[in-house]
Design a protein that fits this description.
- The protein has one domain (9-68, 110-167).
- The chain is 37% helix and 22% strand.
- It has 3 helices and 7 strands; from the N terminus they run ββββαααβββ.
- The protein has helices at 70-90, 93-97, 106-141, and strands at 9-15, 21-30, 35-39, 50-54, 147-152, 159-160, 166-167.
- Keywords: Membrane, Transmembrane, Transmembrane helix.
Length: 168
């Protein structure tokens, strides 16, 4: 049997060091004062269920300000563009996707795409794991632990953009 509850509250970004927003996690503050942590490791808009956790440590004091990452965002984008161009210049194309397809080969092209997808999935998994370990270490320093509570799905959009489109 599945227990389902409808909870009203607000969603906030959190910060662990008061400088950078902790990506992959949202804090839900209910109207009754309960706090829940939602693990959401990608920003694609979807109405799917996400893992939800609770902890004894109150993260209310770690709610991130809205303009926290705005100054670093463009700098990080520029650094990423420069690094990717530098890595592409240093390494041959064949290193990343296998031999170049001079002759149209459906099999070789499919293998190259499969390798790319597998590398992306593994990297997404590792980033998700790193974010969770980082939060667990933060809570462990404060003598708290992270308990899995269940799954959650938003009934209203988390954010509405200028065009009126809801972001779930």
């Amino acid at each position: 049997m599945v227990n389902m509850y409808r909870v009203k509250g607000q969603v906030f970004n959190i910060t662990l060091n008061d400088k950078v927003v902790q990506k992959g996690w949202y804090l839900i503050m209910t109207d009754l004062g309960q706090e829940y942590l939602v693990q959401r490791n990608y920003s694609l808009s979807s109405k799917r269920f996400f893992k939800i956790y609770q902890t004894e440590y109150s993260l209310y004091n770690h709610i991130a300000d809205r303009g926290l990452n705005s100054t670093k965002r463009l700098t990080n984008l520029g650094i990423a563009i420069m690094l990717s161009a530098f890595v592409r210049w240093l390494t041959p194309f064949e290193l990343w996707l296998g031999p170049t397809n001079h002759v149209a080969s459906l099999v070789q092209g499919s293998i190259n795409l499969l390798i790319l997808v597998l590398v992306l999935l593994i990297s997404f998994f590792l980033v998700s794991w790193y974010r969770k370990i980082k939060l667990k270490n933060f809570l462990r320093e404060r003598n708290a632990d992270l308990r899995y509570t269940g799954k959650v799905r938003s009934l209203t959009s988390l954010k509405t953009v200028k065009e009126g489109i809801g972001f779930w």
